[in-house]
Amino acid sequence: MKLRQRLPPNEYGFSLCRTPAGKLVNGPVASGTPNSVNIPVSCPAGSRFIGLDHSHPGGVAVPSSIDIASAKKVGARVLCIQSDTETRCHKMGNRRR
Hints:
about 100 residues, mainly beta, six-stranded mixed beta sheet, 1 helix, about 10% helix
């Protein structure tokens, strides 16, 4: 039996960062509304920004057109979306719009 974990009712998100040793770490976790979250591009000292991760509570792990535009705007190379049942990460390229 597969257990489902319900996400919090409001979207949350954070910056994905990589340390010089290659470890993935996250920036501060931001909480939003049921339909959006404003994620600060902020990484712990010594790490570099590589992308964004945020939740779609009650939804699917597929980025919306707004998610994609926001990720491109800040230069994210990766965009991860979490649903109640899975997390999917998508390569964004490295160009800003």
